[in-house]
């Protein structure tokens, strides 16, 4: 696989978004409007259409989930322990430790992972991606939300907190679109051709817009304090997690090469922007998570090509 041909177009789109925002060619209001259209309509349509028409036969294998979610939960636990034991301000507090762990383990699969996998392996990898990430947001958001409930119990009722948790998971447009697409896929019906074609047209600009907005977002995040924890979270996200996934999928479960590549690339993606939304909603670790998003996004421009090169060499 030609790593430069895969990464360069994606990086170019991100750079264009960054330039448009940095030079104020697009205002904050313009970017917010494009972001609302992209993440609340186009991306969900794209995910629903792909998931509802994906060929899932042969992909439903419990070992695939074990190879991804086992290392993911282990990584979350390691990051939680680091913050819980060593953070000067949030030491011995579960809620900020959970948010830090989310920032160190939550992958930006839709914006970064899917374009890379499409460029590297084509549509054949997408069905497995959607199947694996169906529970990704729901699992990590739920764990982080539960850890934050006790922390916020003095300021809000338990029912209110559980309601917010449900909104972050079940009613998240990305989670809902993948879940609904999976349900439609499993039903003994097919989407009408006219409807399916309309969904394809609506979803086609979704990935490019998501990458463009990722570049725009880098102008709004700042890294000031908590640099050591930002570096630690980025290393955990970009190096430790994909390494554990690689070891588990290849040596412990001995999965097919294409599956190993897909799982490693998913896990090697930078921290997703939704992690910052969780930090913002809980009003803790906002700067650390925002800094991790920036650092890991910039870092993945080096680490993802390295992982692609390593996987290509591993196949030989």
UniProtKB/TrEMBL annotation:
Segments crossing the lipid bilayer: 6-25, 37-58, 64-86, 98-122, 128-149, 170-187, 199-221, 228-249, 255-277, 289-310
Q: Where in the cell is it found?
A: Cell membrane
Sorted alphabetically, the keyword list is: Cell membrane, Membrane, Transmembrane, Transmembrane helix, Transport
Q: Is Membrane tagged as a keyword?
A: yes
Main localization of the protein described in the UniProt heading: membrane
Where does this protein have coiled-coil stretches? Answer: none
Family indicated by similarity: Belongs to the auxin efflux carrier (TC 2.A.69) family.
Q: What is this protein called?
A: Malonate transporter
Q: Give the lineage.
A: Bacteria, Pseudomonadati, Pseudomonadota, Gammaproteobacteria, Alteromonadales
